[in-house]
Amino acid sequence: MLEMNEKIPLPPPRVKIWRYMFIVLAWVFFAFIIVQVSLAGLGLFVNGEHWELHRTLAHYFAWIPVGMLVLSFLGKLPVHLRWICLGLYLMIVAQFLTVIYSSHLGILSALHPVIALFLSWGSLSTVKHSHNLGGKKV
């Protein structure tokens, strides 16, 4: 345990840069999730033309958790954040699978919005945990 007068060592500058990049990607991913859910709602309740944007936007942000996973190693982040990033990516894969195989999955295709809820929670959790990375806590 640290004494009151001991200094907490700061990470090297390059590690801090990777960590800040991780924080930025975490926020970008969270924003994309919010936009995706909003587009799904617009497509369902307002105008069906929004479904195309909902569908194509997913292809752009699907790889963000992979980038976050890479940055988690470069930034020497805690293991639980690495697991969350992997989980986010696997949930996105599950989202694609529920759409691609919806005719074969039957009732299991209803997991698509449930997985979206977990993606929202996981991305918010990542943002929350990542804010301890910039300074002295890790």
Automatic annotation (TrEMBL):
> Which stretches are transmembrane?
20-45, 57-74, 81-101, 107-127
Q: Which UniProt keywords apply?
A: Membrane, Transmembrane, Transmembrane helix
Protein origin, superkingdom: Bacteria
Please state what the protein is called.
DUF2569 domain-containing protein
Task: Show the Pfam families listed in the entry.
Answer: DUF6220
Q: Which residues form a coiled coil?
A: none
Would I find Membrane among this entry's keywords? yes
